[in-house]
Specification:
Elements: H1 9-42, E1 73-76, H2 83-89, H3 94-104, E2 118-123, E3 129-136, E4 139-146, E5 149-156, E6 159-169, H4 174-180, H5 185-194, E7 210-220, E8 223-237, E9 240-247, E10 250-252, E11 272-275, E12 278-282, E13 289-292, E14 294-298, E15 304-306, E16 311-318, E17 324-329, E18 334-344, E19 353-354, E20 359-363, E21 373-380, E22 383-385, H6 403-419, H7 434-438
Antiparallel strand pairs: 1-2, 2-3, 3-4, 4-5, 6-7, 7-8, 8-9, 9-10, 11-14, 12-13, 14-21, 15-20, 16-17, 16-19, 17-18, 18-20, 18-21, 21-22
């Protein structure tokens, strides 16, 4: 039988002490866990978030000093939802909702409320709806609860107008040149409109042309709303300088002569001349020689076509080989025709009055055509003439009593164009120019 070895006396004496200590620690940890569980049971569950009471402080806490009107809730109008239904969801009683709709109708046609429109709802300390805000073009409508019931009010946006100067060189087209110079592309089209009576950007543009332009930058409530009017421009084309200055709502050259003429140089803003007026042209489809009484402008299908002078539509419809065609009668025995249109602009029909520059249709390839283009024709007293040969007839000049004011205004604009320095306007500006004076700085 094997002999048993006893542990050392010191170990036999310490073992009871170690076991007692371990039991104490285990008992202490168990008690701590039980205390934490009891405390957790006493904590109330977090309340469910309610955006209608988001401005109220939690119970027992000091409320944050913020007006309820500073804590709006955005609400999007759903398809088929009426304003009355929306107000009912905001917990307005039917009678009160009807009164609110009636009040808002004084500032806004509630029938034009569209799905996707966002309204801002504001609640008072008691959670009741106190105000609605609806943003519209040019401003916003406020519907507010007052002592006398619901009232609405129109608030126009705070408008600021800066003046920006941009200069560049044409390498491709004017829009590309404007982008490279850091300007708004839309300004290129407005420049083409300003010079449309003297410069045809479909055939006169040349690589190396230089331009400078002053135009408005519009800000509504601090937000960029895009470019406004072109105030002045210069354009150097093949050794000739064109100038334009906006004054009293019209454009004039540097000598005060009106730029507006009876006819625009082209019915399209940007395109290319693909075929000219001729008494004997080889037709690409019929393979015969015959007269071509117009000028063909190649352009993508759907390009807007502008009427070149004020007049009355005498026909708008299908016309054999001409396809969809519009004919317009003008003063002094002139008639213009626009052939091969893909479609007509809204309202273009026989008897309709049209103004110079108005869109009357869109480029197409209807009728006898090989590709999308516009065949533009002009008659004078019943005889077809070359549209490119029309001599410009200027509009009315500046009245004598306004010429001094014009030249002072022109000098200020011209100085800013040439130097890029901040624009300083003379005291003789007209009622049309107060916005320009708000921010007379160019960048």
């Amino acid at each position: 039988m094997p002999r048993m070895v006893k542990p050392p006396l010191s170990l036999r004496l310490c073992l009871p002490i170690v076991l007692a200590a371990a039991a104490f620690v285990l008992q202490w940890q168990t008690a701590a866990v039980e205390r934490d569980a009891a405390r957790a049971a006493e904590i109330a569950p977090a309340p469910r978030f309610d955006p209608r009471r988001a401005h109220l402080a939690p119970p027992g806490e000091t409320p944050i000093v913020v007006s309820p009107s500073d804590v709006p809730v955005a609400i999007e109008v759903r398809r088929g939802q009426t304003l009355g239904g929306l107000l009912a969801e905001l917990e307005l009683a039917p009678r009160e909702a009807s009164a609110a709709v009636a009040a808002l109708s004084g500032s806004f046609d509630v029938r034009k409320l569209r799905a996707g429109t966002t309204l801002l709802a504001y609640r008072g300390p008691d959670g009741r709806l106190v105000r609605l805000r609806l943003d519209r073009d040019g401003g916003w409508v406020e519907l507010a609860r007052g002592d006398g019931g619901w009232q609405s009010r129109w608030h126009p946006y705070e408008q600021r107008v800066d003046v920006r100067a941009v200069a560049g060189t044409v390498e491709g087209n004017l829009e590309q040149a404007m982008r490279r110079a850091g300007g708004e592309p839309l300004v290129a089209y407005r420049m083409a409109d300003v010079l449309a009576w003297d410069l045809d950007f479909t055939r006169d543009l040349r690589r190396g042309d230089r331009f400078a332009v002053l135009y408005e930058e519009i800000f509504l409530d601090g937000m960029d709303a895009g470019p406004g009017q072109v105030l002045a421009l210069t354009y150097d084309n093949r050794g000739r300088r064109y100038e334009a200055y906006r004054f009293d709502g019209s454009y004039y050259d540097g000598d005060g002569r009106p730029l507006k003429k009876m006819f625009l140089r082209s019915p399209l803003r940007f395109s290319r001349v693909t075929s000219r007026f001729s008494h004997r042209r080889f037709h690409p489809i019929l393979k015969i020689h015959r007269p071509h009484y117009g000028v063909d402008y190649g352009a993508p299908a759907g390009t807007p076509v502008r009427v070149t002078a004020n007049g009355t539509v005498i026909s708008a419809g299908r016309s054999g080989q001409a396809g969809n065609m519009v004919k317009v009668r003008h003063p002094n025995g002139y008639v213009t025709a626009y052939l091969h249109l893909s479609r007509f602009a809204r309202g273009i029909r026989r008897g309709a009055r049209v103004e110079q520059g108005q869109v009357i249709g869109y480029v197409g390839a209807t009728g006898l055509a090989t590709a999308p283009h516009l065949d533009y024709r002009v008659q004078k007293n019943g005889r077809w003439i070359d549209p490119l040969s029309i001599r410009p007839t200027p509009a009315e000049p500046i009245p004598a009593h306004r010429r001094e004011a014009f030249f002072a205004y022109r000098d200020a604009l011209r100085a800013s164009l040439e130097s890029g320095a901040p624009l300083t306007l003379p005291e003789t500006r007209t009622a049309e120019q107060p916005g320009v004076a708000i921010a007379a700085s160019a960048r």
